[in-house]
Amino acid sequence: MSVDRTALIKKLTDANGLPGDEGEIRNIIRTELEGHTDSIITDRLGNLIVTKNSGRPGLHIGLSAHMDEVGMAVLRINEAGLLTIGTFGVDPRLLPSKIVSIGKDKVKGVIGTKPVHMTKPDERERAIDLDALYIDIGASTKEEAEKSVSLGDFVYFDSEFVEFGERKIKAKALDDRLGCAVMIEILKSDVKTPITAIFCSQEEVGLRGSAVAANRAHVDVYINLEGTVSADMPSTDAHERVTVLGKGPALSLIDRTSVYLKEYINKIVAAAEENGIPYQYRATGAGGTDAANYHVAHGGTPVIGLATPCRYLHSPVSVCDLRDYENTVKLVRAFIQKYGNSARAES
């Protein structure tokens, strides 16, 4: 089935979903998948678990991507009507002057701090502390602010989806709405292999959703889909670039929480090379993904780590190359087609 990829990614990235508040994303995914799967359930932690081709013979493949994004929450409202914030996975250095939306009503605000004209020399030489930042929603008093926002309200980057350059897109939450989009495409396709797809909650605060979901899904191999850092900037030497935009999806060898089995790395590489699909290796062992929970579930389950490179990850202006996304979809399909009927017997 044909999918308007740009429209799908825009729909997913325009929507909001912080850890524990993934309902808007869940609803979009449910709507997209209606009529294309066997079952769709939401567990108690907010994971969306989808099955397709249940009971068919062949390798049972697990797909996983996380729904949540980085952002903030309102912790205090001061007497001047300004909001103090806490963060979920955001570097405070990115925050000054950003436009945000707050709560279910998407109240607009601007993240402010002391003007440079009023800072001391030593303050100008260091990054701004989170405690020195606040959100201005245009209120003059605490009582006025409380009419629009409440303590604990989630705060999202307000960032427009933009297509630019040579097949590039800019949006918030490419990590990991790109992975969600890949899974939607696969589930809408004509694949014949049994699939369990897990759209995870709360990845950005400690891989919590997958810790629960890994205990319910029994599969033969997982493909964990992520957005990953590229670091292909002029200030970064070539040997320090984790991935490079335009060179295809990135395969993980090892990270802080997982060791990826060489047997399965070789299998997905074979699928890529036989189909002329470009790929690259993720040249770092830093970070961790939901693979951490899947690979130790049910006595041990092989996991393939596959990611779409992104510049400016965990910011409101993440950038990816649509060709890398498209090649990620092609590679997942190629792996399923190559091993769907035989890999269970081989493994």
Notes on the protein architecture:
- It is a single chain.
- The chain folds into two domains: 2-69 and 172-339, 3-Layer(aba) Sandwich (Aminopeptidase), CATH 3.40.630.10; 71-157, Elongation Factor Tu (Ef-tu), domain 3, CATH 2.40.30.
- Helix content is 25%, strand content 24%.
- The chain has helices at 5-14, 23-33, 142-146, 174-188, 208-213, 262-274, 291-294, 322-339, 343-346, and strands at 39-42, 48-52, 61-66, 71-77, 82-88, 99-102, 107-112, 134-136, 154-157, 162-164, 168-171, 195-200, 221-229, 250-251, 280-281, 303-310, 318-321.
- The strands form three sheets. Strands 1-2-12-3-13-16-14-15 form an eight-stranded mixed β-sheet.
- The longest helix is centred in the C-terminal third of the chain and has 18 residues, at 322-339.
- It is globular, with a radius of gyration of 21 Å.
Beta fraction: 15-25%
Task: Return the structural class.
Answer: alpha+beta
Mean pLDDT: 91
CATH class of the largest domain: Alpha Beta
The side-by-side strand order for the widest beta sheet comes to 1-2-12-3-13-16-14-15
Detail the poorly predicted runs: 343-347
Alpha carbon gap, first and last residue: 31 Å
